[in-house]
Design brief:
Elements: E1 5-9, E2 18-22, H1 24-30, H2 36-45, H3 48-67, E3 72-76, H4 78-81, E4 96-107, E5 110-121, H5 128-139, E6 143-148, E7 153-156, H6 158-166, H7 177-180, E8 182-183, E9 186-187, H8 189-201, E10 207-214, E11 220-232, E12 237-246, H9 247-304, H10 315-327, H11 334-346, H12 356-363, H13 368-378, H14 386-397, E13 427-428, E14 435-436, E15 452-453, H15 458-467, H16 475-481, H17 486-498, H18 500-503, H19 508-520, H20 530-548, H21 556-568, H22 578-583, H23 587-591, H24 597-610, H25 624-639, H26 646-653, H27 694-709, H28 717-740, H29 761-779, H30 784-802
Length: 803
């Protein structure tokens, strides 16, 4: 070969290497090899920096080629890089490409790993693409050869040369095609002749053959020989390019690849199954986290309310708790059993906390007047509403097996399009509260001259829409916008928007007339006024649309009863407490035998308005069975607002099932289902809470109305403080009246003490309001925004009390 080649042994950390052998082309061109003494002498001649550079180069060459067994190609300047190997480097030498590859030799019978270097000249006028192609050919991992038409080797790439050097063929000058084509280690001249004929004589574009052979370890293999016609660029003669490929290795690799694909497929299938399990587990964890967050939120809310010294657990609750512990297998202390037994013997009302009066006056840490006021407010009576509840159940049973269909609507299904239209000329009288619709007037009648025509203006319409959705609505703004008729305006808007007018075939004219007459019956008190009734109505509407529908509590007639009770719950209120009426022997107290005189009066007077004349009786089109349920539910709702029954109601409410997380999803919106009849035969939709009994459903809406009656405690700070001022003034007015009658002034109602009921705010929140709403939210979680608003106002009063 005319290409300079040599074998040398580089060592890491040394500047020069030991050259073992050089071919004739190298010696002719660069002179003989340096002796070891001559190489050592060169070290003293080199500058230290040059020695360090040479050391780094030799170390890199050693690690890359000798250690890693990889080929390496780079450009060198023979005048500098070969000076430490050969004796005669000519000055005209120019840059050249040096290819290094791993090479094994034996020295004194011992194998030594060395480097085979091959130098190739480059010239300025050579096409760069040719240089790159040459380098690619040398660095190719495929064994490539170039033969002439006689089968003589012209060129072999570095990979091929290294292969034959490893077999002991160091001189490939006389290497021929038949030496390459071997079968089981033997030359194949016939195969070589066939290949030459196919490429040079037959002019075939390519030629392939597979010959069996053996590896260096003796195992069998199949070698694929691929031949293409080529041109010897140096001699401008036809040539033949030959590539060899171990087909056995390829097949083995393909098999390994298929095995790897199959393995990956199985792993992917297992991973998908694992991911599905993981997703299911994550969903369970998320559900658990949501439940824990809800519990934590409830615990934080409980922490925000300090425990008072008042034990509000009723005797009935304590007895039930004791029985539950026995059912669960626990053995209660004998003293606990005897305490409950003795308490039951002396108790008047099992649904009232034990010794509530003594607790409020002595053990609650309250001032005497605050304790007395709380006792007057909460000390219950002994009367029951069992007969009315039995009447409700009896009337429902008369409807047949289907009963009443539950309401299936959420707040999002409330139809704002069913509102007081500007096309329906609504005419209110600011003084009398009369109401009429033109289409309802009899022919030939003249419009009453005192009726004032009032269309629903955009501001009022916007306020009505806001009232149907906002937990912090300013009811005073609606009163100002409606000429002080907020209750009738809002009630008509909400009832019509709920779809009840259509589902119950209610006359809009009669409904509007009834609402105006009821509103006119409200006395202009500072607190218990038509504005207060509108505020309670607005909050009751939100509670119905946020939870009571989802739990299946409401049907059409019960929903109407809730709207009516909210509108009428303080109808004709005198601005005086029940205790005042009883102590002063007021006619209402005498009429109702001192039993919730105000609440009985509100319910009775409202139904008197309903049945006073045909123009107000909007329920006339409803069946007698449903009218019976409506009246009984209406009375029960209003009577439950008497604070004397507070603890009895809350105690019974503890037995209502709490809402599971899975049952809090919103229901599909829609209008009221048609009212059932005795002949109805289709299956009614199931309640979201099938465990709720009719008694429990009634109890839920009673607590909802009680919470709505305290709704200003959850209002915005400004609205809440405005209501507080109104209530304080109403209390002071009763105190003034008690003073004028020579009666003992009730606690917190003495105007001379200035603070009045304000100093009882924290106690009322802690003992009454927050426990009530917290219990309600446990059953109806969607009412949480109301509890949040109440807690904010409670924190405000606590901060004032601390200062």
């Amino acid at each position: 070969m005319n290409i300079p080649c040599w074998v040398h042994c580089p060592k890491a950390g040394e500047p020069f290497c030991n050259v073992l052998w050089a071919n004739k082309a190298a010696v002719t061109r660069f002179g003989r090899l340096l002796t070891s003494e001559e190489r050592k002498a060169l070290v003293s001649e080199y500058p230290q920096a040059a020695v360090e550079v040479c050391t780094a180069v030799m170390t890199k060459l050693y690690n890359h080629v000798v250690v890693n067994g990889e080929n390496m190609s780079h450009r060198i300047d023979p005048k500098r890089s070969l000076k430490q190997m050969f004796t005669c480097i000519r000055p005209e030498e120019t840059a050249a490409n040096l290819s290094d590859g791993p090479f094994s030799v034996k020295i004194d019978g011992q194998p030594v790993r060395a480097v085979l270097s091959q130098l190739e000249d480059t010239f300025e006028d050579v096409n760069p693409d040719s240089i790159r192609a040459s380098l690619m050919q040398k660095q190719s991992p495929i064994h490539s050869y170039l033969f002439d038409s006689q089968g003589r080797l012209l060129l072999a790439n570095l990979k091929a040369v290294n292969k034959w050097h490893a077999k002991g063929v160091t001189d490939m000058t006389n290497f021929r095609l038949q030496d390459l084509l071997q079968k089981d280690g033997h030359e194949q001249p016939e195969a070589a002749a066939s290949a030459i004929k196919a490429i040079f004589s037959d002019k075939r574009p390519n030629f392939r053959m597979i010959l069996p052979d053996r590896t260096s370890t003796g195992s069998r293999k199949s070698v694929l020989y691929e031949l293409w016609p080529a041109t010897d660029a140096a001699a401008y003669q036809p040539a033949m390019l030959v590539n060899t490929l171990n087909v056995s290795q390829q097949k083995e690799l393909e098999a390994q690849l298929e095995d790897a694909k199959e393995h990956l497929f199985r792993q992917n299938t297992e991973l998908q199954a694992f991911n599905a399990q993981l997703q299911t587990h994550q969903e369970k964890l998320q559900a658990q986290q949501m439940a824990l967050r809800a519990q934590l939120k409830q615990a934080l809310q409980l922490a925000r309310t300090p425990k008072t010294a008042v034990d509000t657990v009723t005797l009935a609750d304590k007895a039930v708790s004791l029985l539950d512990s026995i059912i669960e297998g626990a053995m209660p202390e004998l003293q606990d059993i005897m305490d409950i037994r003795n308490a039951m013997i002396h108790a008047v009302d099992f649904r009232q906390p034990l010794n509530l009066g003594d607790q409020l006056l002595k053990g609650a840490g309250l001032s005497t007047d605050v304790g007395q006021a709380m006792m007057d407010l909460l000390q219950g009576d002994q009367h029951s509403s069992a007969k009315r509840q039995a009447k409700i159940l009896s009337a429902r049973s008369n409807l047949g097996p289907k009963g009443l269909q539950p309401t299936r609507r959420t707040l999002s299904s409330f139809d704002n399009s069913r509102r007081l239209s500007r096309d329906v000329s609504v005419r209110f009288c600011g003084g009398s509260g009369e109401f009429a619709l033109p289409q309802e007037q009899s022919s030939g009648s003249e419009e009453s001259p005192h009726l004032v025509h009032t269309s629903i203006v955009p501001v009022t319409e916007r306020l009505l829409q806001e009232a149907s959705t906002s937990w912090t609505f300013d009811i005073f703004s609606l009163a100002a916008s409606t000429n002080n008729m907020p209750m009738s305006t809002l009630a008509f808007y909400l009832i019509k928007g709920s779809g009840l007018v259509e589902s119950l075939s209610i006359s809009e004219h009669r409904l509007a007339t009834f609402l105006c007459r009821v509103e006119a019956g409200y006395v202009d008190n500072p607190y218990h006024s038509r504005v207060h009734a509108a505020g309670v109505l607005q909050m009751m509407h939100l509670l119905m649309r946020n939870g009571l529908v989802q739990t299946g509590v409401l049907d059409s007639i019960t929903e109407l009863a809730c709207y009516m009770a909210a509108c009428c719950h303080d109808h004709g209120h005198l601005g005086l407490t029940n205790d005042f009426l009883i102590k002063s022997h007021h006619n209402l107290a005498l009429t109702y035998n001192d039993i919730s005189p105000l609440e009985n009066f509100h319910a009775a007077s409202s139904f008197q308005v309903l049945h006073s004349e045909p123009e107000t009786n909007f329920t006339e089109t409803i069946s007698q069975e449903l009218q019976s349920i409506l009246r009984a539910s209406f009375v029960e709702l209003i009577l439950s607002t008497d604070m004397k029954k507070h603890f009895s109601t809350i105690s019974r409410f503890q037995a209502v099932p709490r809402c599971p997380a899975a049952s809090r999803s919103p229901v599909v919106s829609g209008s009221h289902p048609p009212m059932p009849s005795k002949k109805a035969a289709s299956n009614p939709p199931e309640d979201h809470f099938p465990r709720l009994t009719p008694e429990q459903k009634l109890l839920i809406i009673q607590v909802a109305l009680k919470a709505s009656d305290l709704g200003h405690l959850a209002a915005s700070r400004q609205v809440h403080q405005q209501w507080t001022s109104h209530l304080t003034e109403e209390f002071f007015q009763q105190g003034d009246r008690e003073r004028s009658l020579g009666m003992k002034i009730s606690p917190l109602m003495d105007r001379n003490e200035k603070t009045g009921m304000i100093k009882s705010q924290v106690g009322f929140f802690e003992i009454v309001a927050l426990p009530l709403l917290r219990s309600y939210v446990e059953v109806i979680p969607d009412a949480q925004p109301m509890l949040d608003g109440m807690l904010n106002n409670y924190e405000f009063w606590r901060s004032l009390e601390k200062t």
